[in-house]
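Exercise 7.
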Amino acid sequence: MQLNPQLADLPVYHPGRPLEEVARELDLPLGELIKLASNENPLGPSPKAIKAMQETASKIHLYPDGNAFYIRNRLANKLEVETDNLIFGNGSNEIIEFVAHALLGPDTNIVVSQYCFAIYPIVAHLAGAGCIIVPAKDHGHNLPAMLEAITPDTRIVFVANPNNPTGTLASKNEVMNLIENLPDQVLLVMDEAYFEFLDDPVNMLPLINTKPNLLLMRTFSKIYGLAGLRVGYGIGHPDFIAALEKVRQPFNLNAMAQAAALAALDDDEHLQQTRKINKAGLKFFESAFESLGINYVRSHANFILAKVGNGQQTFLDLQKKGIITRPMVGYQLPEWIRISIGTTEQNDRCLNALTELR
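Solution. The predicted structure, written as tokens, is:
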């Protein structure tokens, strides 16, 4: 077979390791493992979402609503946008693929920051496009430099705010300056997967109908605790959303995912409790790291980046103690690990284990 030549050098994305896989490999009891690797909600999904999934199970022999009518209308009402401003994906990762299909090809490029989410360069490479990587500033985006890096062949600028894996947050002034000065032919994708964790987020929703080259991405995987169902969405100008709908596969959002997301939207108690636990967890690790002399990056998301010396070895050592974190060598941060914020008990256990390894 004549494989697509882009596949030869295409890097493989390695997600956080599942609990079951680590339990099998290290012969550890599954119940004694904790996973602080993939920025998942330690409280689990909303009880309302669980109930909605149970009620949907008996009808799972039927195809889902290909237009996601109910979740589309409920979300549009909540965000105060129109239904044609929204597109849904099998996780926000699929939205990234949509924009790559729509805009990228040979002789085009994207602009990203150093330490960006690994999927951005992967989809560009797969499309035969180039990738301009702008050096980070204090582990975060240097948005003025990214604006200057745009070429006539640039089609997309990706900005995760807060950023994964560093947790950094770009200022409102720099974000607005980027939006106002971006060339009309360049799409700005603002990846807002951790938007709901922010106390004072930059609200760009009022701009989507006047800025056709702005697309916001959000997800139900993080604060809503539905990572296993894969529900993401994009918010943009109706004309661009209509173009993305042409590359979206039918039935990409399954019936159980739609029901759970719809129910989760109405569970404000679960969302606020998640925010409370996350904020306390971040303060806990920041205070502990300062006492231990461990460098860290101040995070605005639900994880924290810690400089531990040999990140890969620390990851392996913690794993033997039943604690799964995320080594950052794949992000060119070999001395660091990323720790997702867990429950109070999980945070205590992780810190105790990390202290023992020092």
